[in-house]
Every structure is written in structure tokens, then in C-alpha cells.
Amino acid sequence: MKFFWPWLMGAIEERQKKIAAGLAAASQSEKDLQEAEARSKEIIREARDRATQIVDLAGKRSNEIVEEAKGTASSEAQRMVAQAHDEVARESSRAREQLRKEVGKLAVAGASRLLEREIDPKTHAELLDKLAAEVARG
After folding, report:
1. What number of other Cβ atoms are within 10 A of residue 132's Cβ?
2. What's the rounded Cα separation, in Å, for the pair 35 and 39?
């Protein structure tokens, strides 16, 4: 027993130290796991917050883009309408002028037939100008 007891006690103490170290390591591992879980939850919460912010910003930006497109489309439509009105006014003016010339020619032709003589070109031009002026006045 004298030889066996110290060796047995040494083995038991060594085993107790290993068990204590294992328990301490397990306790530390459990603590580290809890910290890692807490940190992962924090990271996930931050990621969700960031994702929410990104979605909100994207929604705001899309609304801004839609409003810009509406404004651009509206101004383009107004420009096109104004351009169409200008074109209509020009065409109307051309048609009136053409009509005045035609009316003048018909009037001179009618007057010429009534007088049964051909009016010379200078007199013809003067009559056309006078008639055009009268037609323009209403």
C-alpha cells in the first residue's frame, strides 16, 4: 500500500485536475457560445435594420424617379401641344393667304369677263393687292 497509495492518489489528483480543466473549458465554451449567439443576434438585427433602410431608400428613390418621369412627360406633352398649336396656326395662316389669292384671282377673272377685256398685268396686280387688303380687313 505504501507504494501503491501515493501512485493511486497522484492518478486520482491528476484525473481530478483533468476533469476540473474539462469542466472549466466546457464552462468557458458555453460562455463563448452564449456570447457568439448574442453577437449573431445583434448582427442579424443590424442586417435587418440595414435591409429595412435600403428598402425604404429604394422606395423613396423609385417615387422620386416616377415623379421626375411624370414631370418630364408633362413638360414634353406641353411642348408638343404648343408645337402643334404653332403648326396649326401656320397652316391656317397659309390657307387663308392661299384663299385670299384664289379669291382675288377669281374676282379679277370675273371683273375681266364683265368688262370683256383683259386687264394689263400692272392693273391686275394692283387690283389683287387691293382685293387682298379688303379681304384681310374682313
Report:
1. 16
2. 6
Which residue type sits at 125? Answer: A
Question: In the chain, which residue ranges form alpha helices assigned H by DSSP?
Answer: 4-115, 121-137
Contact predicate 112/119, CB 8 Å: yes
pTM above 0.70, yes or no: no
128 HSE (CA, 13 A, CB side): 18
Contacts of 118 (CB under 8 A, 6+ apart): 112
Q: Does position 115 have pLDDT exceeding 70, yes or no?
A: no
Integer angstrom CA distances of residue 70 from 74, 75, 78: 6, 9, 12
Residues whose CB falls within 8 Å of the CB of residue 119, separated by 6 or more in sequence, listed in order: 108, 111, 112, 127
Joined grid coordinates for residue 95? 390657307
Model confidence at 121, pLDDT cuts 50, 70, 90, reads confident
